[in-house]
Design goal:
Number of helices: 11
CATH superfamily of the largest domain: Medium-chain alcohol dehydrogenases, catalytic domain
CATH class of the largest domain: Alpha Beta
Largest sheet: 7 strands, mixed
Strand content: 25-35%
CATH topology of the largest domain: Quinone Oxidoreductase, Chain A, domain 1
Shape: globular
Order of helices and strands: EEEHEEEEEHHEHEHEEHEHHHEHEHE
Number of strands: 16
Helix content: 25-40%
Number of domains: 2
Oligomer: single chain
CATH architecture of the largest domain: Alpha-Beta Complex
Structural class: alpha/beta
Amino acid sequence: MKAFILEAYSRKGTLRQAEVAEPVVGADDVLVQVHATAVNVLDAKIKTGEFKLVLPYRLPQIMGNDVAGVVVRVGPGVRRFKVGDEVYARPGKDRIGTFAEYIAMNESDVALKPATLNMEEAASIPLVGLTAWQALVEKAGLKKGQKVFIQAGAGGVGTFAIQLAKHLGATVATTASGANIEMVKRLGADIVIDYKNEDFEDVLRDYDVVLNSQDAATLEKSLRVLKPGGKLISISGPPDPDFAVQLGLPWFVKMVMMVLSHGARKKAKKLGVGYSFLFMRAEGKQLGQIASLIDAGAIRPVIDRVFPFADTNAALDYVEAGRAKGKVVIKVK
């Protein structure tokens, strides 16, 4: 099968297109023929080696973290899926590889594709959908009537998180460039701050939740817009010790995480607010719940561009340049 492979960590290098063997299908696995995949900021961070301490892939590694496709084979222990099912997924972190014609995944990481979406639309959802769900529903426990600040509203996570937060009944503030203000308002944002002309810290007060996806300076300011007891969930770091425990990382990595997050945790404690880092996990059951919301019309995908499979490197470059509004998708079949 054809696949795009990372051979060495590099900021300027490209993935190599290669012919590789089809994946081995385990007892609890489904083999999916990939119809579409999507590019995430995570893919760029893996490519540059930024995450190699916590995601120590043995190179060469097939890249890709989102998939929509059709089940073509099932292991003997599979009970939830059958050949011919249309599915979507974010594979487990140790089994990524959706920039390929086929991928084998544990059935627990997979869900039936939303019936109202085509393959390209469905492929845009898993990673950002699970990230927003685990941040806002699991960690934050966001409730009706609360206020949430979602940074970078026009990005992949932001476009999904705004819609999810509105569905949950929250008041939503976000940041966007002037060109994207109307788009994020249509998604449900109540307050939109043009980050090129305004400082969100001058506008926002007493927020219950912040979903942080930006740099350390933005994180520090974000802690100050929370009310006492509020929660900041960061998807851009710094990782905290709980994250190391969650991933089962060695003790010395836990110590590194403790040092890296010390400043953020100390500032949060001083302000009487919470700080936690989220690295989303694969979860088929949550994708099933997300599919129900999509089919009910509560959330819709936001896609910037669709690239052909042969142009996978161009799609990755486009995301790395920071120009994408919503998701960038790759059509494989």
